[in-house]
Amino acid sequence: MTNQKARHPGAVATGANMSKFNIAEAKSRFSELVQKAMMGEEVIIAKDNKPVLKLVPLERPAQPRVSGSGRGQILYMAPDFDATPEEFRDYT
Fold first, then answer.
1. DSSP per-residue string spanning the chain
2. Which among 7, 18, 41, 51 is least surrounded, fewest beta carbons within 10 Å?
3. What is 11-55's CATH number?
């Protein structure tokens, strides 16, 4: 499965907005592939030329976090929550 657009061995161009890389190639170019995914490109990682995973960015929350938004949602907290466990007393 090769394509003339592929620039590196192990990399196979599969579409306008998608690239496929064998595991060895993905390992050596991981930072670059993360950057491609963050820019919206779909990056496919393959083993033995069979797709095994897709590298895509996580969706960002629709709204920014608001301080105190979870107030009142904790139902129970143990009375000794802040206590240092006995086996860690030497580290404090």
1. ---TT--STTEEEEETTEEEEEHHHHHHTHHHHHHHHHTT-EEEEEETTEEEEEE-PPPPPSS---TTTTTT------TTTTSPPGGGGGG-
2. 7
3. 3.40.1620
CB atoms within 10 A of CB 59: 6
Are 23 and 45 within 8 A, CB to CB?
Answer: yes
Angle made by CA atoms 81, 75, 71, in degrees to the nearest 5: 90
Residues 21-78 have pLDDT tens digits of 999 999 999 999 999 988 888 899 999 989 999 998 887 767 888 898 888 888 888 9
Give the CA distances from residue 9 to residues 24, 27, 34, 91, in Å, rounded to whole numbers and listed in that order.
Answer: 10, 13, 18, 51
